[in-house]
Design goal:
Length: about 300
């Protein structure tokens, strides 16, 4: 169980959109904005909860397309909103450099938005009625930050920590970082000793009852497994990227699905990291077989469908 102050409202979303945190108060703020696909729903939820007051701030734990896809629509609804992104991403957002923002590399899409404010690790930012500490949280994403509210012990973790499982370690795929950064960030979370963790996906979980401790042990075990068997991480990442694409597309004609597979550069890298001994199409068949076998994806004569 966990208790949040009544002015903090978690919108728990499915697996394409990230969770969102609405921070009420004189200057309401919204942290992480979900996927572009659900942007209209996100704006509607925020508008309903604000009851006519304007949204003052938007902040992001990191800029993956499931965490910033609603930002453009929110900015259109509240043009005076201030938008905060992790400091190193600010010039990339301002130039809308999709490669630097990593949407291009994974074949994902995200509506354009603007940003004028940097979340600088080591500094604090006021969002809603609370001061939040900004802490660097490399691992899942090299530039990610944690937002920690120390008075109530509330951690907006993004994808640095989930209750079950761990996110893909993207820096390991592009060679910019290793699994140890993820472990370092888990150690940082342990030192913060939060009362409640609001993860990027899944329900919030608390210190009470040992849920955070248990989640920490599971995450560490998983990272140790990846460390010992990096190929297992590459296979996991390939499945996640394909499933993510199908959560967004829902259905694709066979030729379009094949075209997407051929052109998502991250998959080529993952092929090399997982089974360079196999040729590309044999590798794709190996990755796809369990996805179809377990009903994660379905196919009929004309299309591939998300199995959800
Ligand atoms: Zn996410």
């Amino acid at each position: 169980m966990h208790a949040l102050p009544s002015d903090l409202i978690v919108f728990e979303r499915g697996w394409l959109s990230s969770n969102n945190l609405l921070c009420l108060g004189d200057a309401p703020a919204f942290i992480d904005t979900g996927h572009t696909k659900h942007a209209a729903d996100t704006v509607r939820r925020v508008r309903d909860a604000l009851g006519g007051r304007p949204l003052a701030d938007i902040a992001h734990t990191h800029l993956h397309s499931d965490h910033c896809g609603g930002t453009g629509a929110l900015q259109a609804a509240w043009p005076a909103v201030r938008t905060w992104v992790p400091a190193p991403s600010l010039p990339h957002v301002q130039a809308w450099d999709q490669d630097a923002l990593t949407f291009g590399d994974s074949g994902q899409r995200c509506d354009r938005f603007s940003a004028g404010h940097a979340l600088v690790p080591g500094q604090a930012v006021r969002l809603g009625a609370h001061e939040w500490q900004v802490l660097a949280a490399p691992g899942h994403d090299a530039l990610a930050v944690l937002l920690f509210e120390p008075r109530h012990g509330i951690l907006m973790a993004g994808d640095a920590m989930w209750e079950h499982g761990v996110g893909v370690i993207f820096p390991h795929i592009d060679g910019s970082g290793g699994f140890e950064h993820f472990t370092d960030t888990l150690a940082l979370i342990e030192r913060l000793d939060p009362a409640v963790v609001i993860p990027g996906h899944g329900a919030p979980f608390g210190r009470e009852g040992g849920a955070i401790q248990a989640a920490m042990a599971r995450a560490r075990a998983r990272i140790e497994q990846f460390h010992a068997h990096p190929a297992a991480h590459a296979l996991y990442a390939a499945k996640v990227l394909i499933k993510y694409q199908m959560l967004d597309a829902e259905s694709m004609a066979h030729a379009d699905f094949q075209h997407w597979l051929e052109h998502a550069p991250a998959l080529r890298t993952l092929h090399r990291q997982h089974r360079p001994d196999l040729d590309w199409h044999a590798w794709l068949a190996l990755v796809l077989a369990p996805l179809f076998g377990k009903g994660v994806l379905r196919r009929d004569e004309t299309h591939v469908h998300d199995g959800a």
